[in-house]
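Researcher: I'd like a candidate sequence for this fold, 218 residues long. If you have to choose between options at a position, lean toward the conservative one.
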């Protein structure tokens, strides 16, 4: 009876184990993704990235044993035009099943045309849907010093888009803290780290309704 050297047997066992592991990994379905595409309100401005509401959302997903992963593509100072320019590459790279759009605050703070903002957001919704992703739209409310007329036209953009594309809408990311000035950093625009969980909760509630109906290909 032919006897094989011990080193050969060990090599064969390791090779077999690696083949089985690689095969199992290849057959495992990819982790479904949520792309959070926003501005500094979602980019953990002036705080550790792990303290921001997107990181807290990922933590909640893990705690609830949800298979989803939130990918944060938010950039401080981003306008809707900048977000639109970056989105196609992000959709191709990450292939998310859900896109959360949180943009528009910087358009408003700069007094940009709400019609242009609406066009940019509409194109982002269409690009996301064409890529097979469900969309959650998050709006924002501007400070009253921008004027009643401009503010009304600005806020109308988000409700109009939600109705046109039949996507869920969170009227304002800051609503949970907007009457609590102590919740904001000295610039009075960005919430503090300790209240990021309050921003996350409404997003979590809206997101769960979407994940319950999104079919993830395995």
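Model: Candidate sequence:
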């Amino acid at each position: 009876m032919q006897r094989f050297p011990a080193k050969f047997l060990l090599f064969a066992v390791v090779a077999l184990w690696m083949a089985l592991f690689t095969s199992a990994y290849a057959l495992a379905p990819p982790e479904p993704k949520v792309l959070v595409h926003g501005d500094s309100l979602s980019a953990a401005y002036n705080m550790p990235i792990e303290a921001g509401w997107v990181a807290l959302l990922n933590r909640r997903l893990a705690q609830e044993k949800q298979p989803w992963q939130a990918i944060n593509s938010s950039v401080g100072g981003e306008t809707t035009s900048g977000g639109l320019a970056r989105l196609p590459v992000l959709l191709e790279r990450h292939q998310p099943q859900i896109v959360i759009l949180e943009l528009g605050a910087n358009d408003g703070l700069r007094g940009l045309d709400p019609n242009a903002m609406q066009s940019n957001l509409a194109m982002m919704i269409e690009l996301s849907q064409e890529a097979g992703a469900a969309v959650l739209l998050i709006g924002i409310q501007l400070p009253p010093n921008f004027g009643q007329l401009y503010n009304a036209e600005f806020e109308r953009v988000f409700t109009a888009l939600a109705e046109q594309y039949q996507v869920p809408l969170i009227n304002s990311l800051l609503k949970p803290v907007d009457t609590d000035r102590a919740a904001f950093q000295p610039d009075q625009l960005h919430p503090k780290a300790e209240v990021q969980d309050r921003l996350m909760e409404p997003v979590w509630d809206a997101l769960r309704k979407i994940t319950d109906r999104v079919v993830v290909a395995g």
